[in-house]
Amino acid sequence: MKNITYLFATILLMLICSSCNAQKKATLAQSPAPAPEPEPANITHLLDVAGPFHTFLKYLESTNVLGTLQTQANKTDGEGLTLFVPKDDSFTSLKNPSLSNLTDTQLKQVILFHALPHFYSLSDFKNLSKVGPVQTFAGGAYTLNFTDVSGTVQVSSGWSVTKISSSVWSAAPVGVYQIDMVLLPEAIFGPSVPSVAAPPPAPEAHVPAADAPSDDTSDADKGPPATKEPSSSYRVVCSLVFALSGVLLLSVI
Ligand SMILES: *[C@@H]1O[C@H](CO)[C@@H](O)[C@H](O)[C@H]1NC(C)=O
Ligand SMILES: *[C@@H]1O[C@H](CO)[C@@H](O)[C@H](O)[C@H]1NC(C)=O
Ligand SMILES: *[C@@H]1O[C@H](CO)[C@@H](O)[C@H](O)[C@H]1NC(C)=O
Ligand SMILES: *[C@@H]1O[C@H](CO)[C@@H](O)[C@H](O)[C@H]1NC(C)=O
Ligand SMILES: *[C@@H]1O[C@H](CO)[C@@H](O)[C@H](O)[C@H]1NC(C)=O
Fold it and tell me: What's the pLDDT score for residue 210?
């Protein structure tokens, strides 16, 4: 008699157990698929369709800066990116000084000088005019000054002053703004607009660690969001049934 009760209790327990598991599996299967992450802004595509910014895009590619910037743009939990892009005719009209006599390292610095390792919306630039020089991706002495002149954002590179003429893309974490002139860093081209004689190209500048902000990609790859667990109240009921069965089993034995 005792044996039969024992057998019965065991079967009961197994049934409850499998029911719990089945319920758990069903709940897991039913939970909706996690919402897909929004696609990161594709810098190549942005510069391809607007502009024309083909010259700047070619420089981004030839100096390998594009990968650095796209990596920064891809980080959803990072600082973001602000990029200033001159149109093709800004490069054409850049005669004296020109970019043609720069070393590869200097050219890369000039291109990195057009990017800030932080996302700024157009309205943020008003604030930036109060904080003073802003660090660019080129690092070190390669800073830009922003001034708000009756609603127009002026950008000063030390060598030249230009303005933001339009917004190509502005949605965190990526801002791309068209500027009227190529930004020439003081650190390479000297302190000011030349009067008559062109400033002699600076000797090979010592170059600060330009790639530093882009090296850390580890936090970019995050696992997919965890699947939803069955509701805790259901789990409580299951555990309760388990406990009761245990008591029953003990009392039978
Ligand atoms: C980015 O855009 C370019 C040009 O439209 C395209 O060739 C490239 O495949 C795109 N890259 C990604 C990752 O979507
Ligand atoms: C940026 O993200 C896109 C889409 O997720 C991916 O195809 C591309 O390889 C990434 N690029 C970099 C430089 O991380
Ligand atoms: C570039 O260098 C060449 C020769 O090395 C020189 O003739 C030319 O004037 C230089 N251009 C500029 C813009 O400095
Ligand atoms: C800009 O400055 C104002 C006050 O000067 C401040 O309230 C606001 O939070 C600042 N915005 C940003 C993005 O720093
Ligand atoms: C930026 O402004 C500071 C003063 O606030 C000045 O000392 C510096 O030379 C300026 N730099 C550029 C690149 O305009």
Answer: 43
